[in-house]
Amino acid sequence: xxxxxxxxxxxxxxxxxxxxxxxxxxxxxxxxxxxxxxxxxxxxxxxxxxxxxxxxxxxxxxxxxxxxxxxxxxxxxxxxxxxxxxxxxxxxxxxxxxxxxxxxxxxxxxxxxxxxxxxxxxxxxxxxxxxxxxxxxxxxxxxxxxxxxxxxxxxxxxxxxxxxxxxxxxxxxxxxxxxxxxxxxxxxxxxxxxxxxxxxxxxxxxxxxxxxxxxxxxxxxxxxxxxxxxxxxxxxxxxxxxxxxxxxxxxxxxxxxxxxxxxxxxxxxxxxxxxxxxxxxxxxxxxxxxxxxxxxxxxxxxxxxxxxxxxxxxxxxxxxxxxxxxxxxxxxxxxxxxxxxxxxxxxxxxxxxxxxxxxxxxxxxxxxxxxxxxxxxxxxxxxxxxxxxxxxxxxxxxxxxxxxxxxxxxxxxxxxxxxxxxxxxxxxxxxxxxxxxxxxxxxxxxxxxxxxxxxxxxxx
Length: 460
Prior knowledge:
By secondary structure, the chain is of the alpha/beta class. The chain is about 45% helix and about 15% strand. It contains 16 helices and 15 strands. It has helices spanning about 1-15, 30-35, 40-50, 70-75, 75-80, 100-110, 125-140, 155-165, 180-190, 205-215, 240-250, 305-320, 325-335, 340-365, 390-400, 430-460; strands spanning about 55-60, 60-65, 85, 150, 175-180, 195-200, 220-225, 255-260, 280-285, 300, 370, 380-385, 400-405, 405, 420-425. Strand 11 and strand 12 form a beta hairpin. It is globular and about 75 Å long. Mean pLDDT is about 90; it is low at about 70-80. It comes from Paenibacillus artemisiicola. Its cofactor is pyridoxal 5'-phosphate. GO terms for molecular function: transaminase activity.
């Protein structure tokens, strides 16, 4: 059929490099004229390419060639026949990103700050942006003033700087949840003090064990993701957050609360730990990478007064200041109301994906496979039946057309698990979630059968 010829033509051009990621495709009218067909035929071809994740649409702009993951580029003949369903890449859904809106904000920022572009900016961040951020944080139950808000070049910068700064309590050891995202593991590499882990599971944390660490461990700070944990998707309850804040006050421990996806929490009853902090020991850190554009590289930290000066000195040594134009664009995006509208759409998208993922888990994963039930649609973890290992399973699943992320690197050495991998459906089309999980279930069953056959042969 003619639409298949159009699909194959564009696929070939992408393969040979004639059309590269980010290139705009001809409009539907232009393509219809080029191929001598109806617009409906072109629409069908573009829809097929979009379903295969080879192109994406930008409303009121057109269709663009999508980025291809490394797994798709080098995964063999089967991966070239069809796209890998990628549960490993955890950026925001490209198809829902506000490209044109943010382009408008960037242009406005250039006009607004064109004189400032020729000088260095404020190391703490634009005062006008910090005012907008303080207003935005109120909706998240984080009540603070612009003077305590520090703009950072991505939340990972704030986390890294905080870990290595001396704190006013004079202590030197750190507690982190287990597992924890790979960026935190890398930031802790070579740290001079002791790093203690504490498991973060389906039922939350063992707060009595946390208290013992605070009481006896000379703990400088405790790092936790209070909502939509990476890699499990878990969230603390309000009761747990309140007790953690109280333990921090009682034992003079600072808490670094990473609320990087707090915007996606549509339940107004959920509060950040910061809301329960009466002693000024909760440091609130937030990112815009997971809900907007990762390339924006902007985040924030709400700091106690006694930490602000040393933090800003460390930040200035790292990058002088965060990029001025992206700061200005975010300011325009917040003050215009565009961000609030965008977040409403993102919540709906990820909520639907979370429901689909949980249903697919229940339907397709074999007995003995454990999994976490995400509510954000971003992160989830699967624990394989014994004696399977995550890396071997990931290699097998890639041959079946599914990419997952082994979580071994997300554990401290004393807590390491080799039978867990992380999934994210943030980039996965809703229609591909169940087929992808079905392939995962099939791959696990096949690996279990192979193990059974090997044991049978060995005994025979």
